[in-house]
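Researcher: I'm preparing a figure for a lab meeting and need a structural model of a single chain. I don't have an experimental structure, so a prediction will have to do for now. The sequence is pasted below. Please return the structure as tokens so I can convert it later.
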Amino acid sequence: MLAKTFGCSVFGVNAHLITIEVSVDQGAKFFMVGLPDSAIKESEQRVESALKFLGYRMPRQKIVVNLAPADLRKEGSAYDLPIALALLKASEQLNSELLEKYIIMGELSLDGMLRPIKGVLPIAIEARRLGYKGFILPEENAKEAAIVNNLDVISIQSLQEAIDFLEGVSHIEPLKVDTREIFQHTQNTYDADFSQVQGQENMKRAMEVAAAGGHNIIMIGPPGAGKTMLAKRLSTILPPLSLHEALETTKIHSVAGKLGKNDSLISNRPFRSPHHTISDVALVGGGGNPQPGEISLSHNGVLFLDELPEFKRTVLEVMRQPLEERKVTISRAKLTVDYPANFMLVASMNPCPCGYYNHPEKECVCGPGVVQKYLNKISGPLLDRIDIHIEVTPVSFDKISSSRKAECSEEIRNRVIKARERQTLRFENSDEIYSNAMMPSQMVKDICIINEPGKILLKTAMEKLGLSARAYDRILKVSRTIADLADSNDIKIEHLAEAIQYRSLDRDAWAG
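Model: Understood. Here is the structure written out token by token.
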């Protein structure tokens, strides 16, 4: 007898329908076909043990399990449950017409209990798109799937619960969650706040400009100056995620298996801070079964690279294309997947190996040429892609011990949101551009218009700092953001001057 169940395989951040066909006929042996990986092939032992534990029999006949389409590679252990249910139907131990109305996924333990799986949100979205009645899945993943409306999410704890539900022995109420309520309730809840930062007013201003325009930023300063503390608070002044951005971000974390137990929706902008020993594949994504890397996990949020020169040069160079294109394309012989990577890069570094070059009080002990050599660990093309370069100076004792309350993140975020609203109106006719940092060169020429005194100022700065054409565009973009924060329609000379000072750490100006 032949039976069918339906599951999904996740490629990139999207799911594709997989039909699980099981045939039980005269003969012997168990055959698994349809390009399964080792984890799927091992499902025979898990399914057999679970069936026996629950009192069902494993047919001693010829069993063929086909995962269609057969030319698409399938990976993971989430096919255990649909295989087990199709096997029971094919061996006439299960009598239900509901099997083909649901997408079914779940990993079986040897006693028939279910373990959580990855990529639930994209699967739920695909199930709704294809018109399936519902999605049967492990209980721990149910909240994640339930944020997709118009889909019956049936959460179960064991194979026996699934059988009872399909045969009508027991009724399981579909899980319902109010996505908007969850989203609004958990939005903008942060442990850190800019009110905890004393002093560093110039750095706070640079952070505000970066957040308002979505600009990348690098901070150079001695140890203990507050670079990491400032970076960790940047996400608290970014505009809140929209519901669409939250769903998109949650999909990526779901595919990577990074959602916590019983988590449903990511409502705050991600902040990722990988260690400097990270590999290039772990940063951009990839592997035999392509998975999203850190730059995709920071999509719609912040990627913080602490001690930038300590990262391997190959790791840093692979970021150059994603920084421009806002996505990562991973190609393999039989498939190509795209992962979104629209993130803000925040980097920090010491000015030299000892950390005290240009320090107002401590003396640098590095030899001649060492500072320039240290900075040269970061390539010019990568440095050009970072819009704002800012020097962080140590905070004085008077400011640290001051009882004056610093400005909180909410106040800064309100100004950032107003600046972003101006940009939303400016780019309302473009589907892919919604911040100043994303403007292509031609749009920069059309929008970032400066007057004659501004042109003279910019020409002088470019000649003295040795700036590239890409840096020219970056200065214009940042000056447009500063003008937006000032609620100005025109880029004035003071806006341009402030933007130019944020390039003062370019190579010619910094290390002499």
